[in-house]
C-alpha cells in the first residue's frame, strides 16, 4: 500500500473572495500556484460573474493576466483574501451622442503580431511599470534598430563636440544630414522639381521663372 506524499495536501488552498458591493464574502478552493487568467475563470464560474469585466486585487495590487508578455502566475496561501471588482457597464449609447465607443481602444498602440519576444517584454515593461503613454510607446517602437543606434551614437558624440567647441557645427551638420537622408531616391526617368539636378538643366513643364515671365511679356500675354 502506497503512502501519501507529505506535500500532497498543500497543492490546494482555500481563499476568501470579497466582492465589492452587497454580495457577502465567499470561500473558494484553488491551487496554491495558479495563472491569473485561470484564477479569474474559476472565480467567474463559481460566482457567475462576467470574466471580461472582472478585476482581481491581491495584497493591494491589481492582478494582470500577462506580465512582460508572459502569463502571470500568483502564489496563494490558505486563508488569504482576494478582492473581486466588476467594471460597471458603460452609459447608454444616446449619452455618447453617437460617438463610437471603440475609438479609445483603436487609439491604443498595439505591437504587431510577429514582434520578437525581447521586444514584447520591453513593451510590457515600459507600459506596465513606467506607465508610458501610447504616443510615446508608438514613437519608441516605430523606429528601427539602425535609427536607435544612430541616436545613441549622436548623444555619445555630442559631449565630445561640446568639449572641442564645435557644438553649433555639430548640430548644424546633424540638420543637414537629416535633410539629405530624407531627400529620397529618384527612379530612372524621373525628373526633379529643381532643374539643377536634371540632365541639361531641364525644367518641369509649367515652371514659372524669370525666363518664362520675359517670354510671356514679349509675347503680349500680360
From TrEMBL:
Keyword annotations of the record: Membrane, Transmembrane, Transmembrane helix
Family annotation (Pfam families): SAYSvFN (PF10260)
Organism domain of life: Eukaryota
Keyword Mitochondrion attributed: no
Every Ubiquitin-like domain range: 13-87
PROSITE patterns per record: UBIQUITIN_2
Entry's transmembrane regions: 136-161, 167-184
Keyword Signal: no
InterPro entries, alphabetized: SAYSD1, SAYSvFN_dom, Ubiquitin-like_dom, Ubiquitin-like_domsf
Name of the molecule in the record: Ubiquitin family protein
Amino acid at each position: 500500500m502506497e503512502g501519501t506524499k507529505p506535500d500532497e495536501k498543500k497543492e490546494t488552498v482555500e481563499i476568501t473572495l470579497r466582492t465589492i458591493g452587497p454580495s457577502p464574502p465567499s470561500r473558494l478552493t484553488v491551487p496554491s500556484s495558479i495563472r491569473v487568467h485561470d484564477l479569474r475563470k474559476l472565480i467567474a464560474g463559481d460566482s457567475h460573474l462576467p470574466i471580461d469585466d472582472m478585476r482581481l486585487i491581491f495584497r493591494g495590487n491589481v492582478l494582470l493576466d500577462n506580465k512582460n508578455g508572459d502569463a502571470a502566475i500568483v502564489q496563494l496561501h490558505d486563508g488569504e483574501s482576494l478582492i473581486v471588482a466588476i467594471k460597471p457597464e458603460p452609459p447608454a449609447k444616446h449619452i455618447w451622442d453617437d460617438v463610437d465607443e471603440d475609438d479609445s481602444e483603436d487609439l491604443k498602440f498595439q505591437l504587431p503580431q510577429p514582434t520578437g519576444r525581447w521586444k514584447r517584454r520591453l513593451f510590457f515593461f515600459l507600459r506596465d511599470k513606467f506607465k508610458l503613454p501610447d504616443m510615446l510607446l508608438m514613437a519608441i517602437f516605430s523606429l528601427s534598430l539602425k535609427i536607435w543606434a544612430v541616436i545613441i551614437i549622436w548623444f555619445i558624440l555630442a559631449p565630445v563636440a561640446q568639449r572641442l567647441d564645435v557644438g553649433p557645427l555639430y548640430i548644424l551638420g546633424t540638420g543637414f544630414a537629416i535633410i539629405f537622408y530624407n531627400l529620397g531616391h529618384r527612379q530612372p526617368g524621373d525628373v526633379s522639381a529643381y532643374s539643377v539636378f536634371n540632365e541639361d538643366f531641364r525644367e518641369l513643364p509649367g515652371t514659372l521663372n524669370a525666363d518664362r515671365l520675359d517670354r510671356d511679356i514679349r509675347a503680349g500675354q500680360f
